[in-house]
């Protein structure tokens, strides 16, 4: 699975400040985001145990100028090719393999944008001061349910990571 990272925001404890430049007085906040994909490896459709893997999202930010600004940050994921959060789908040609991405290894809360039964992550208000900066990262937990009638192939999906404030 490949991830496209959008310009990003703050991930307090897990997420750090980010996004496109934010202007407040004389403070400019600049951030970059990167993500590592969730690579499941070989899926055995006959196994009674699902396949699990993790990926990470990292955000690096800096604030320039003097003064400070206060922001609230929300991190979300897109639906990918499935168009919904109930069940994401990886595709290999005309074949599909169901999976999803979760906020924890308990696989209880789907990581999405807060709609369709999914959850996004919000932190704030957060005050950032000119001259500060940092990097934060957090895990995303992927899971493929067991016993799917999958044919051999390379299955992929593209998820967009968005962090706004």
Describe this structure in words.
The protein has strands at 2-5, 22-24, 27-36, 51-65, 68-77, 88-92, 95-102, 121-129, 133-144, 158-164. It has 165 residues and is mainly beta. It has a single domain (2-164), classed as Immunoglobulin-like, CATH 2.60.40. Strand 6 (88-92) and strand 7 form a beta hairpin. The radius of gyration is 18 Å and the shape is elongated.
**Number of domains as seen in the coordinates:** 1
**Radius of gyration from the alpha-carbon trace, in angstroms:** 18 Å
* Structure class: mainly beta
The proportion of residues forming helix, as a percent range, comes to under 10%
Report how far apart the termini are: 27 Å
The amount of beta strand, in percent, is: over 45%
Task: Tell me, rounded to a whole number, the average pLDDT.
Answer: 81
* Strand tally: 10
Which CATH class is shown? Answer: Mainly Beta
Note the run of SSEs as H and E: EEEEEEEEEE
């Amino acid at each position: 699975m490949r991830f496209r990272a959008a310009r990003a925001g703050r991930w307090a404890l897990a997420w750090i400040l980010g996004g496109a430049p934010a202007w407040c007085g004389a403070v400019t906040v600049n951030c970059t985001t990167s993500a590592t994909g969730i690579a499941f490896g070989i899926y055995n459709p006959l196994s009674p145990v699902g396949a699990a893997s993790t990926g990470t999202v990292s955000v690096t930010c800096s604030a320039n100028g003097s003064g400070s600004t206060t922001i609230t940050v929300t991190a979300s994921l897109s639906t990918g090719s499935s168009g919904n959060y109930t069940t994401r789908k990886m595709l290999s040609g005309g074949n599909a393999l169901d999976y999803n991405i979760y906020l924890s290894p308990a696989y209880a809360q789907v990581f999405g944008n807060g709609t369709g039964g999914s959850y996004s992550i919000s932190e704030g208000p957060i005050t950032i001061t000119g001259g500060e900066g940092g990097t934060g990262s957090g895990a995303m937990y992927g899971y493929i349910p067991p016993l799917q009638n999958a044919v051999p192939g390379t299955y992929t999906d593209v998820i967009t990571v968005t962090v706004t404030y």
